[in-house]
Write a structure and sequence with these properties.
By secondary structure, the chain is an alpha+beta fold. Helices cover 29% and strands 21% of the residues. The chain contains seven helices and 16 strands. It has helices spanning 2-8, 38-58, 65-74, 117-131, 139-151, 155-168, 184-197, and strands at residues 9-11, 17-19, 80-81, 84-85, 198-201, 204-207, 218-225, 229-236, 239-247, 253-256, 262-263, 270-274, 277-280, 287-292, 316-318, 324-326. The strands form five sheets. Strands 5-6-10-13-12 form a five-stranded mixed beta sheet. A five-stranded antiparallel beta sheet has the order 7-8-9-14-11, with no helix packed on it. It has a two-stranded antiparallel sheet with strand order 1-2. The longest helix has 21 residues, at 38-58. The chain is globular.
C-alpha cells in the first residue's frame, strides 16, 4: 500500500513531496485526480512510521528504510485554512459531509493529537466546523465526533454526540439504517464507548479518558489495551477508585489515570512519570492494582446498579403491576 503512495509522490517547487493523485471518499465537487488529500497524507505518514516501527521491533534492515524516513521528513504539511483541516490542497471543507476522512490523522490514527500543543486548537477547530454543518451527517459522523471528543478529554461532548446518534439516527426498534440496514455505525458506536472508557495509543494506556460528568459510577472488566494488557477499573461518585492491569506479554507499561498519586500494595515497581502517568514494571503474567494514595477502596468488580428511571425498554415488558407496556 505504501509503495503505491510512494509511486505517486512528486517533488514540488517548494521542495516538498506531494501526492500527485488522490481522492477523498464521497466528498462532492472535487477534481479527479485530487492531489494532496488529507486522508492520503495521513495514511502515508502513518504507514511510513508504522513500517519503521515494525523494522525496529523485528530488527529488519529493509532497503526502503531511507525512503520511508525521507518521506516523513519532506512530505508536504496537511492543508489547512481558517476553518481547520481541508479536504485537500485545492478543496476546502465547504459543505456538510458525513465522512471524517479529512480528520483521519486525528482519529483513528492519532498521529495528530491534542497532546501536541501545536495541534490541539487545530483539532478542536476542525471538529467544531465539521459538526457545525449537520445537514449531511449520518450516524457514524456522530460516533466519530464522540471518539474525537473523548480523545480531547471532553467527555460531556462525547456523550452529547452519542445521544444525538440515538435521538436522531437509531430507530425505536434499536436498528440503524441509511439506504438500508447498516452494521458499521452500531459497531462504531460501541467503539466510541470504549474510547471513552479506555484507549491505548502512543506510549501509554489511558483509563477513563473521556467519561462525562453524568456517568458517576462506571465499571469495566478486562478491556484489552495495546501491549497485551487486560485492564479493569471502577469509578464511583465521579472518582476513580482503582485500576487493575494484567500483563500477558511483559511489554513496557505506562498508564495515565486521573487518580492522584496512585500507589499499590504489591511488590511491582510503580514510578511517576509526571502529568498523571505512571510507569509500571510488570512482567509477563503479573498484575497490579493501582489506587489513590491514602485510600482503602473496595476492590470488588461488579456491575453498576441500574437506575430504573434511566432504563429504556423496547418491545413488550411486564410492569410492576403485571400489565404490558411498550416504550422506546
Amino acid at each position: 500500500s505504501i509503495n503505491y503512495y510512494l509511486h505517486q509522490l512528486k517533488q514540488g517547487p517548494d521542495g516538498k513531496l506531494h501526492i500527485s493523485r488522490g481522492y477523498s471518499p464521497e466528498y462532492p465537487k472535487q477534481p479527479t485526480p485530487n492531489p494532496d488529500c488529507n486522508i492520503d497524507l495521513a495514511l502515508l505518514r502513518w504507514g511510513c512510521q508504522t513500517l519503521l516501527d515494525i523494522c525496529d521491533r523485528l530488527k529488519i534492515n529493509d532497503p526502503l528504510i531511507p525512503k520511508w524516513k525521507d518521506t516523513l521528513a519532506n512530505l508536504t504539511p496537511y492543508p489547512t485554512d481558517k476553518n481547520g483541516l481541508m479536504i485537500s490542497a485545492s478543496v476546502p471543507f465547504a459543505e456538510s459531509h458525513r465522512h471524517f476522512s479529512h480528520l483521519l490523522m486525528v482519529y483513528p490514527l492519532y498521529i495528530m493529537n491534542p497532546e501536541q500543543p501545536e495541534n490541539r486548537d487545530l483539532v478542536i477547530k476542525s471538529l467544531n466546523y465539521w459538526m457545525g454543518m449537520p445537514k449531511a451527517l449520518q450516524g457514524y459522523s456522530y460516533t466519530g465526533a464522540a471518539s474525537i471528543s473523548a480523545l480531547l478529554g471532553k467527555g460531556n461532548d462525547a456523550a452529547m454526540y452519542l445521544n444525538k446518534l440515538l435521538d436522531t439516527k437509531v430507530h425505536p426498534n434499536t436498528m440503524y439504517t441509511e439506504a438500508g440496514p447498516v452494521i458499521e455505525t452500531p459497531l462504531s458506536g460501541a467503539a466510541s464507548i470504549h474510547d471513552m472508557l479506555l484507549t491505548s495509543w502512543g506510549d501509554r494506556i489511558r483509563v477513563f479518558p473521556g467519561v462525562p460528568d453524568s456517568w458517576k459510577d462506571v465499571t469495566f472488566y478486562h478491556l484489552r489495551a495495546q501491549g497485551a494488557f487486560l485492564v479493569s477499573a471502577v469509578r464511583k461518585g465521579g472518582q476513580t477508585q482503582f485500576v487493575q492491569i494484567e500483563s500477558l506479554a511483559g511489554e513496557p507499561c505506562r498508564v495515565w489515570t486521573d487518580m492522584r498519586n496512585p500507589v499499590t500494595d504489591s511488590s511491582v515497581p510503580v514510578q511517576s512519570a509526571g502529568d498523571g502517568v505512571v510507569e509500571i514494571g510488570l512482567k509477563k503474567g503479573e498484575s497490579v492494582t493501582l489506587y489513590p494514595k491514602g485510600s482503602h477502596p473496595d476492590l470488588t468488580i461488579a456491575a453498576v446498579a441500574e437506575q430504573k428511571d434511566r432504563c429504556n425498554y423496547w418491545g413488550f415488558n411486564e410492569s410492576s403491576k403485571g400489565t404490558s407496556r411498550q416504550t422506546e
